[in-house]
Amino acid sequence: MTQFDDRERAFEAKFAHDEEMQFRITARRNRLLGEWAARLMGLTEVEAEAYAKDVVRADFENAGDEDVVRKLLGDLTQAGVDVDEAKIREAMGHKSVEARRQIIEQIN
Length: 108
Known about the structure:
Layout: H1 2-41, H2 45-58, H3 66-78, H4 85-107
Helix pairs in contact: 1-2, 1-4
């Protein structure tokens, strides 16, 4: 019975680790998206840092990426930036890859 318990604990530990990694990658991706959007809006460095944090916080409103896309689309449109949802989702994909690379490099 202990072998089964050990396997179960190992599986639970791996699941927890994987979930934590995904959370960190998503938060990093959102920060990178905020920095990208801030550049498009022409924000100062201080404003960009604050805006990136706002984008990370926006992700906690609802499950999934829709709240982040909605925030970015609204803010960019209001700032007069010519952008659509497809362009934001494309940037989101690129920033996901970059965030994963940064997190992995940070761990190693």
